Amino acid sequence: MLWRVHFLGGLLAAPLVFAMAITGILYAWNPQLEYLLHRKALTAVAEGPDRPLSEQVASARQTRPELRLSSVTPAAPDAPRGEATTAVTLVPVAAGSNRFEKPNGAVTVYVDPASAEVTGSVLEANRPDEWLRNLHSNFRIGKFAEPISELAASWLLVSVLTGLVLWWPRGNRALGRNFRFRIPGRSRWRSLHGLVGVAASAGLVLFIVTGLTWTTYAGSWVDLARGQFDSDSPEVSTVLDRTGGPGSEDSALSGADSTDTAGTPPGIDRVAAAARESELTGIVVLEPPKEPGRAWTAEEDDSSWPVEQSAVAVDGTTGDVVDRVDWEDYPLLAKATSLGIDFHQAELFGLATQLLLTALAVALLVLIVAGYRVWLLRRPSGSLGAPPRVGSLLREAPVSVLLGFALLMVLLPVLAITLLGYLAVERVVRSARRPSTG
Fold first, then answer.
1. Res. 392: pLDDT tops 70
2. Strand, helix or coil at 372?
3. CA-CA-CA-CA dihedral for 175, 180, 183, 189, to nearest 10
4. How far apart are CA 189 and CA 183, in angstroms?
5. What phi, psi does 234 have (nearest 5°)?
6. Alpha carbons 323 and 428: distance in angstroms, whole number
7. Per the domain annotation, does 194 fall within a domain?
8. Around 132, how many Cα atoms within 13 Å sit in the side-chain half-sphere?
9. pLDDT digits (tens, 9 = 90+) for 69-89
C-alpha cells in the first residue's frame, strides 16, 4: 500500500517538483543575480559625505512625480563605499499597502548618497526577486495557480516519508545492504534513489514544511494557530497623541505624505536620525505615515542569524520615538514562522543557507531522475507499471499508517482532495473493467 502511495506521489508531483527545484535554485541566488542585473543602479560612485536624506528622496521623486512615496531604505552605513545606494520606492497614488508584495506600477529609484544623483531605477514587477518568486510559486500563471505548487509540496512530503519507510532496513544485515551502492542495471538506479533520498530526507522535510506554512490552504492552519494562541507578529503603534492645539498642523503635515507632492516628505531626516539613535543597524526601511496624525516607522530588514528585527515609530515633527518592538517581543510561534520563511528563502544564514538549499534541490533532481529511470526499467511494455493493489485499504493497512495519513490529509487539504479523487477514479475504472454477470 505504501508503495502504491509512493508511486502515486511521484506520478502526480515529480514533474512539478522538478521545475520547482530548478526555480528554487535560481531564487536562492537572487541577491547575486540582482546585483549582476542592476549593478549600475546599485553602485555609488561619488566621493564625500552623504547628502541629507531629504535631498536624496527629493531627487528620486523628481523622476516620477506622479507617484507617491512608499518607503526609503538609506544606504547601509557599514556597506563598502562605492556599492550602497539609497533605495526610494514609489507607488501609484491609489495603490494599497502590503508589506509582503509591491503593488502594480511600483518602482524603486536608486540615489548616490554622496551626490544625491539618481543612478538608476527598477520596476518592481521586473525585479529578479519578484519574478522568480512568482515563477517558483505559481509558474507565473497567476495567484489562482498557487495551489499547484502546494499540491506538489504536499505529495513530495508524502513521497519522502513513504520512501523512508520502504527503504528502512528490517535488520542489521539489511542496514548494511541498504547503504551499499549497487553498480549493475536497475539496482544501480534504485540504490542511488534510496541513498540520496535517505541522505537528504531531513533537510527536504524541513524545507517542505517551511514552505507549506505560508501556502493558501496548509498555511491556514498556521494562521489559525497564531490567532488562537495570540502569536501574531507584533507591530509598532503609529498613533500620535497630538490631535489638536499648537503644533497640530505640523503634526498633520508630518503624517501625510500627500500634502507634499513637490518632493521631500517632511520629517524624514529627523526620522532617520532617531532610527540611528535607537540603535537600529544594518539595512533600515523607513515608511511614511499613511494618514495625518500618524508616525513614521523605521524597521530593520535583517533576515540573517542572529536575527535583528527591531522597529520604532517616530514622530516626524519632533523626532521622538513613540513606540518600539524588538525581536524579543515576538511570541514563540511568530518567531518560528518568521525563521522558517527566512530559511526557505535562503536568507537565514546567508551564503551557508544558499549552498545548503542548492544541494537539497540538486539532490531532489537526482531523486526524480533516478526514480523515473527505475520506473522505466521496471515498467512492462504498454503498461503504467503501477504497484499491484493488495486488498482493501481500510482492512489491510495498519492503524498507525491510517492515522498518519488521516492527520496528513487534515493538515494538507490539497493532498486530501487529490488522494480521494484518485481513489474514486481508480474505483470507477476497476468497476468498468469488471466483467458483467447479467
1. no
2. helix
3. 60
4. 8
5. -70, 150
6. 62
7. yes
8. 17
9. 999 999 887 666 556 899 999
Task: Say if residues 177 and 225 touch (Cβ distance below 8 Å).
Answer: no
The continuous run of DSSP H or E covering 111 comes out as strand 107-111
Cβ pair 149, 20 in contact under 8 A: yes
Q: Is residue 436 part of a domain?
A: no
The dihedral sign for the CA sequence 121, 124, 129, 131: negative
- Whether residue 145 contacts residue 19, with contact meaning beta carbons closer than 8 Å, is answered with no
**Residues 149 and 36 grouped into a single domain:** yes
What is the greatest pairwise CA distance in the chain?
95
**Residues whose CB falls within 8 Å of the CB of residue 200, separated by 6 or more in sequence, listed in order:** 360, 363, 364, 367
Q: Residue 395 CA to chain centroid, in angstroms?
A: 41
pTM of the model: 0.81
Among 111, 131, 151, which residue terminates a domain?
131
Residue pair 314/274 in contact (Cβ under 8 Å)? The answer is: yes
Grid coordinates given for 135 = 515563477
* CA–CA gap between residue 310 and residue 328 (Å, rounded): 9
* All cell numbers assigned to 187: 539496482
Question: Which residue type is seen at 181?
Answer: F
Task: For 23-76, give the DSSP string.
Answer: HHHHHHTHHHHHHHHTHHHH-----SSPPPHHHHHHHHHTT-TTSEEEEEEPPP
Grid coordinates given for 93: 497614488
